[in-house]
Amino acid sequence: MLFQQAYMPAAFPLAEKPFLQKYIPDRRRLRMQELEKALLPLHLPYAGNSLHYQAPPPSSWHPQLANTEPSSRWYPLVTEQHQSQYNHVQQHYHHHQPSPSQHQYQPQQRRQWQQPSPHHHSNSSLHVSSIMIPPQSPTLTSYYHENYNEWLDHYYQSKRRQGLSSRVDLDAQKRQKIRHLNDVHNTSTWGNMDVFLPENASHHSFSVPAQLHGTDHFHVSGIPPQHHDPVSGFQQQHHYNAYGLLPHSTTGALVSSSSSSLSLPLPAGALSEEWRDNMLQYAHTLYATAPESPELLELLHTLHSRFPTHLPILLLLACVYFAYRDYDASLQYNHLILSYDPEYVEAMSNIGTTLQSMGRLSEAEHWWSRAVKLRPSYFDAIENLVGALCSPNAVHDQEKASHGSKAEKAAVDLVSRQREALAVCEYVEQYYFKEIDSAFSLTPPKELPHYQLSRLQNLFYAKGNLKYALSDVLGAQREYEKGLELAFGASLLSVANQLAIACGSGAAMEASRSNRVLDIQSLPLMLLQPEQALGLLQVVFASTGGILPGLVTLGCPMHDNESLATVQQTNQTTSTILLTLAKLYQDMMNPSTPVMVTAASHGGAPVPSLSLLLLMYYLSLALHPSPSTANNMGILMSNIPEAVALTALKLPANHSQPGLNGVVLAMQYYMYGLQIDPRHAHLYTNLGSLFKDMGHLNEAVSMYQKAVEYNSQFDVALANLGNAMKDMGRVQDSVQWYRRAVEINPDFVDAVCGLVNALMGVCDWRGRGGVGTEVMVDNYGLMLPKSKDPHTRQGWIGRVVDIVEKQLNDGALWGVGTLKQPVNGQGKLFGEQLQEIIIRASRVQGQHDDTRLNQLWRQRLQYFAEMEGKKNEGGWLIRLIERILRRLQRKWYIETYGEVVQSNVQRSAILITKEAAEKYVRPMIPSSLPMPPLPTVLPFHTFTYPLNARQVRLISHRNALRISHTTMNAAWVPSHVYPPPPPPSPRLKIGYISSDFNNHPLAHLMQSVFGFHDKKKYEVFCYATTASDNSPYRTKIAAEAEHFIDVSSWSHQQVVETVIRDGIHVLVNLNGYTKGAANEIFAARPSPVQCSFMGFAGTLGGGWCDWIIADPIVCPPEMVSGEVWRRRQKDQRVQNGEKGQKNGDFEGDIDPEEDTNDFVYTEKFIYMPHSYFVNDHKQGFREEDDEVMIKQHMHGHLSQEDLWMIEEDRRWKMRHKLFPQLPDDVVIFANFNQLYKLEPTTFHLWLRILERVPNSILWLLRFPPAGEKHLHRCAVEWAGAEVAQRVIFTDVAPKHIHIHRGRVADLFLDTPECNAHTTAADILWSGTPIVTYPKYVHKMCSRVGASIALATGYGDQMVATSEEQYEEMAVQYAQSLRYKYETDRHGKMHRRGHGPLMDLRKELFFTRERSRLFDTQRWTRNLEQGYSEAWRRWVTAEEFEDLNNKTSNASGCIWVKDPDD
Q1: CA dist., res. 1097 & res. 1317, Å (int)
Q2: Angle at CA 1169, nearest 5°, toward 1168 and 1170?
C-alpha cells in the first residue's frame, strides 16, 4: 500500500493532508542480476544480497550540490530549497533592498541517530494449520516534501528573527515616478488601502523627537519634501553585496547619540560625498559582520553629525538600534527620515517591522500598507504585510481587549485576513499587469529587474497558496501556472511538448508544425533516467543555453557571481512552484476531501495526467537537484506498470538499457538521491519497500534499518520494518518497531493496525480493551468485567474499530460527481452514456421495453444527482461497468451461438473483427476517476477483529474496487470485452488459478480433486502462479490434472489471454485475499462464470466474482445480498421500479454501501451438500498399516473391537511419548490453531473449563513461540498459578506427524472467533471429537468448524449454539470420561476409555471411511453439478434478475443435491 506524505500549498494549516493510494502494478520480480543492471548507469557497485555500496560525496556527482540538503524531517513540506528561497520573505526587516546574493542557500542539518538491534531467531513452522494464509503485510511508501509549510509557518513563529531594510533601491524610486502610480491606484482592485486598517490607525501623525533636531546638525532650509533628494550621491548603493541578518541578541553597550568619542580625520573637502559614501560603506560592513561593535554606533553618529539630512545614514542608524532591541530609538530615526521624505517606503516598512516586534501589529500593518500603496514593487513591505495577514497567531490590540469568544471568531477572522492578503497580491499584480489575457502565457514585465523575477514568482505562489486556503483549488492552480510562465516564457504544456519532440513523438512534431501543442490527455508518457533529467534544461530551453527564458528576457547577465546567484534563486523558486503544482495535480488525481473532489470533477478543467506530472518532477530535479525530489520520482516510477513503461517514450542515452521499466528507474532515482544525501531516511525506506515488493525481505530489512539509524523518529520506516519482520515470521520482533512508530505518531493508522495485528498474533493483550460485550483487558493485562453496552469501544482494539469506521465513512466520497461529467465530443454526461450501454447490453432479441428501462435508469442516476449524504458514487459506477461487461459478453455469446448450453458439434472460437470490437466495446472508467481509497485493515484481518457485517463487507468491497479500477485502467486491457468461449462440446472447461499448488494447506486438501474430475464431461486446467517447490503435492497435482500450466513468470495479460485461448467456461479463484493472489486476472473478466473457493473464508465484494462455493451452514442464505433482495421484493419493502430513486441497488444486487448489517456477501452461492470443505485425508494421510488392517477387517481376520483396541493402544503409546509425566486419568483438551485466532473471551472460557475439570490440561502449540509467555501470564492473572501450570505448549510438528498425533487429545476445543479449518478436518480424521461454536452469522471463518462437524453426521454432539453451551459440553464430556485398564482375550493389558466422549470418538473413527466429509470423489461429483448449473444459468440468463423476471421469488443460489441423499 502506498502512503503519501502530503505536501500541498504551504500556506494552509487548515488543509487536510491526504494519502496517495498506491497503484499496484502488474510486475514480475527482478532478479538480482537485473538489480545490478539498474545500478550500472549510476556506476554504483552492487554486492548481492547484502546491498553494500559506497556513495561518493555529493560534490563529486554534482559540484554545486554540496551542502544543499536541509533538515531531514518528514512533515508536510515542499522542498529543501524552500527555506532559502523564502528567507527574504520570512524576515520582515532587511538591511538592504534585495540583491540576488542575499538568497544564497544556508543549509541546516537536523538528524537523529539510533542503531537498531533486533533480536534474530529462527521461527520455522513445519506445519501450517489453516487454509487461510495471511497476505503480505502492507508496504508503505513515503513521499518526502521538505520545507513545505515554511513560506507561511515562518510567519507564525512569534520569536522569529527580524531585520530592517538598511539600503535603498534607487532604481525602484525612479521607476515609481515613471509609472505614474496615481493612475494605477485609481484602477486598482485593492482600492482604498485603509480598508485593512483599524479606524484609529488610518491617519497617524508622528512628530520627530526634539533631541534629534539639533540646530547644529541639520537644516531643512524650507525645502519642500517633494523636492528634496534624500539620497544624493548614493546612486550605486543598491549594487553592494548582501549582508546577513541580525542575531537575536547583541553585546556591547549602547552609545548615546548626544556624545561621540570617535574622531574621524576629514580630508580636504571634508564634507565630500565620496568620503561620506566610503564611510557609510564601511559602516554597512561592520553592521553585517559585527553589529555589536561599539565602533559602529560611534561611526554612524559621527556621520549623522556631519551629514544630518543624509537619509541612508539615518536608515542604517535605525537598523542598528533595532538590532540592539532599542525599538524606541529605531522608531525615532525612521520617523526622522519621514520628516524629510514622507514617501520614503524603506523607513515605512521598517517602522512596521519595529511595531510588530513591539506587539503593535495593527499599526505595523498600517505602515506596510502605506509603503505598498506608494510603491507596489517594494517586495519587503509586500511580503511583510501578506505574511502578517496570513498568520493565524496574529492578534490585534483591540482583540486583546475584547471579551468575546475568540475561538468562535478565529476561523472567520483568519479567512477574512487571508482574503485581505489576497487583495494585496492582486493589487501588486495589477501594478505589473494591467490586463492578463488567459489565452496567452504570462511574460515578465520589462521594467522588472532580473534579480526580482523570483520575488514576483513568489507573489503568484502566495496567491496560489491563499486561493487554496480559501478552497479555490482551480484558482490556485492557475496562480502556480502564472509563476511558472514567468520563468518559462511559455506554458508548462508547451515545455512538455518540447520534451515530447526531443523524445521523438511524431504527434508532438506534427502539432508543432501546425503551431499547436498536444493537450494534456494526448501528451505521451516520457521516461527519463536521472542523468537525463538533470540535463533537461539544455533540451527544453536550448535556445537560451539552458537558462530560464524569463531571466534571459529581462537581460540577466551571466558574467558575475551575483547573476549566477540570481539564476540559482530563480531556479529554486521555479522548482518549488513545480513541486507544489505537481502535488496539487496528484491530489486532483486522487481527491480525498470534498473541496478536492469538486475541483477534480470540474467539467471545464483539464484532467492532470501522469505524463505531465513526471515532466514537472523532471524539471524540478533539473532546476534544483534534491534527494527528496529523487525520492518522490522513485515512488512514481515504481508504480508504472511494465507494459506501460515498455511503450513510453525515452530520450536517447549513451548507455541505453533494453527493457527499461518502472522498477529499474525507481531503483536508479533512489540511488541517485542517496548520492546527494547518503543519510536520507526516506530514500532508504522506499528502497526497502521496492525490495520488499520484489520479494527480497532480507534486503528490505537492511534498508529499513538504515532509515531508522539515520532518523530514529521516522514512523513510516519503523512501521515498514515491523511489517517486514512479521512477514519473515518474527512476529514478536516486529512489536517493538510498531510500538515505536505509534509512540512517535499516535495517529499513524498503518502503524496502529500493524501493532494490533502483531500483538494479537502473540496474544499480548495488555491494553487491548474490548468492543461490545466481549471480555475487556486493561493496560496491565488484567481482565475487566464485560460491558453491558454493545456499543462500547475501549483500548487498542476499540481504536482499530474506530479507524475502520472512519475510513469507511470517509471513503464514501470517492467518485462524487463522476456520473455528471461530460463525455468528450458526445454532448452527454458519463452516466447517460452508461445508461445507453446497459440498456443496449440488456436488449437481447427484443425482450425488453426500452421505455421502461430508460425510466428506471434515469431514476437511478437521479439518486446520485441529488447527493444527499455519502453514497460512494465511484463504487456504484464500477459495479455498473462490471455489470455491463457480463451482459455484453453474454450478448456476444447469444448472438454468435444462440442459447446453447451444450453442443455435440465443435464450434469455432470467436474471431475479433473491427465491427465486433466496436459493437462490444468495453465501457472505460473516466480518466478523472482517481484510485479508490483503501481501508488500512485488510480483508484477512476482519476474521479476528470485532467488526459488524457492514464493516466486513465494505472492507472487502473497497479492496475489490481498487482491483477493478487498477485492472480496467491497465494498458493491456483491450477496448472491447473479452469474447466468450464456444459452447461446451461436450466438455465444460474448468480453470483453477492458484499460487498454492505447492506445499500449502490448499494443496494438502485438494491434491486429488483435479484428477478426480470426470474427464468425459469436464476438461480441467490448472494455472500455477508460483514456481514449483518440487514437493510431492505439486508433483501429484501437475501429474493428475489434465492441463497444468506454470504461469509463475507470466504477466496478468499473458494469463488472461491464455485463459481465453483455452476457452474456459468456469474460472475458479483459489486465493481470494490471501498471499499470492492474482485477482487482477479475474477483474479483467476473461470467463463468463467466475467463482471463489477455499482460499479466502469470506466475501470478495467485487463484481468480478459471481459465485462462492460454500454450504448453507458456513454461509447462511440470510446473509446473501441476492437473497435479501428477493426477501425485500417479496415483502414489498421496495416497490418495483422505484429502487433507483431510493438507493444504489441493482436487480438481485443490493448496494454494498447501504448502511445495514442485513447482509455481508455480494456474491451468489453454489451450496454444496454436507460441507463445502474438501479434504484429501482418505487418499493422502493414512498411516502405513491402515490399509492392511482395513483389508484384514473386511476379510474377517480382525473384528471391530480388535481395530478399536489397536487404535487405543496407538493413542496410549503416543500420549506417553509426548507427555511421559502425565498421570493416566488426566483429560487432554487441545487446540492446534495459530494463536492469532485466539482472543481473551475464548481463552478465559478455556480457563473456566480447566477450573471446572481439575484433572485436565490444555495443550496448545507454540504457534508462534512468543505467544507462550503471554498466555501463561494471562492464565496466572486470570485463573491462578495452579490452573496456569496446566496450560501446556509443544512445538509445531510436520504435517503427517501433526495429523496422527491429534489422536492424543481427548477433546479439541475450537476457537469461536475464527475456527479451525484444515486443523478441524485433521482432528476429526484422527477420531478426536471437537467442540465448536459458530459465533457469528456474518463471518464465514467462525462457522467452518460447524460445517465440518455436521458433515460427519455427528454434528449435533459437537456444535454448540452459545458460549454457555460450549462450556457445558466440554465440561460434561470431560467429567464423563473414565479410563481403566482391561485385559484382552490374550491376557494383554490395555488402557480403555469409557463414557459419551469415548463413544463419540469411536463412532467418528469407524465411520470416517464412509463419511461424507472424507469422501473426496463424491464431493468432486457434487461440485461438478454446481459448475454445470452455474454455466446453464449464465447461458439462459436465469442468473440475471434483470433479464429473467421468473427468478424474482426463487432463490438465486444453486443448491447442489447429492444423488445418494
Answers
A1: 10
A2: 120
Q: With a cut of 50, which residues of the chain have pLDDT below it?
A: 1-37, 40-125, 147-162, 175, 177-189, 191-261, 270, 395-398, 400-401, 403, 1137-1141
Q: Map grid coordinates 546567484 to a residue.
A: 565
Residues 1389, 1381 contacting (CB under 8 angstroms):
yes
Phi, psi of 1360 (to 5 degrees): -90, 155
Beta strands in 468-603 (DSSP E): 526-527
At 233-274, the pLDDT tens digits run 222 222 222 222 222 333 233 333 333 445 555 555 545 888
Rounded CA separation 143/19 (Å): 10
Output phi, psi for 202, to 5 deg.
-75, -35
Give the separation between CA 766 and CA 668, rounded to whole angstroms.
Answer: 44
Q: Please tell me whether residue 528 adopts helix, strand or coil conformation.
A: coil
Cα 872 to Cα 338, 1142, 1160: the distances in Å are 63, 14, 17
C-alpha cell at 189: 482592485
749-761 and 795-811 are packed helices; what angle lies between their axes, rounded to 10 degrees?
A: 140
The model's pTM is: 0.79
CB count in 10 Å sphere of residue 673? 31
Which pairing describes strands 770-771 and 776-777: parallel, antiparallel, or unpaired?
Answer: unpaired
Q: Across the chain, which distance is largest between two alpha carbons, in Å?
A: 141
Cα separation, 1019 vs 1017, whole angstroms: 7
DSSP 626-687: -HHHHHHHHHHHHTS-HHHHHHSEE---TTPPTT--HHHHHHHHHHHHHHH-TT-HHHHHHH
Q: Cα(first)–Cα(last) distance of the chain, in Å?
A: 48
Using only C-alpha atoms, the chain has a radius of gyration, in whole angstroms, of 38
Q: Report the run of H or E that residue 1294 belongs to, with start and end.
A: none
> Residues 6 or more apart from 1231 whose CB is under 8 A from it?
1238, 1246, 1258, 1259, 1260, 1308, 1309, 1310, 1311, 1316
Residue 1092 backbone phi and psi in degrees, to 5: -120, 140
With CA atoms as reference, report the closest residue to 757 among 954, 943, 935, 941. 941
Q: What is the arrangement of strands in the sheet containing 1227-1231, beginning at the earlier edge strand?
A: 1287-1290, 1256-1261, 1227-1231, 1307-1309, 1330-1331
Q: Is the dihedral of CA 1320, 1322, 1324, 1330 positive or negative?
A: negative
| Other beta carbons less than 10 A from residue 695's beta carbon | 12
Share of the chain above pLDDT 90, in %: 63
**Residue 1066 contacts residue 989 (beta carbons within 8 Å):** yes
Report the candidate in 806, 790, 799, 1160 with the shortest Cα–Cα distance to residue 950. 1160
Of 602, 622, 293, nearest in space to 471 by CA: 602
Dist CA 1438 CA 1106 (whole Å): 13
Q: What is the 3-state secondary structure (H, E, C) of 426-466?
A: HHHHHHHCCCCCCCCCCCCCCCCCHHHHHHHHHHHHHHHHH
For helices 715-727 and 749-761, give the axis angle rounded to 10 degrees. Answer: 30
Residue with cell string 551571466: 558
Burial 635-671 (b: 16+ CB within 10 A, else e): bbbbbbbbbbbeebbbbeeeeebeebbbbbbbbbbbb
Q: Please name the helix (run of DSSP H) or strand (run of DSSP E) that holds residue 1112, with its range, or none.
A: none
Contact in structure between 937 and 1076 (CB atoms under 8 Å): no
For the stretch 737-789, pLDDT in tens is 999 999 999 999 999 999 999 999 999 999 999 999 999 999 999 999 888 89
Whether omega for the bond prior to residue 939 falls within 30 degrees of 0, making it cis, is no
Cell numbers at 901, concatenated:
448450453
Give 1211's DSSP letter.
H
Grid coordinates of 423: 487583495
The label of the residue with cell 538533470 reads: 534
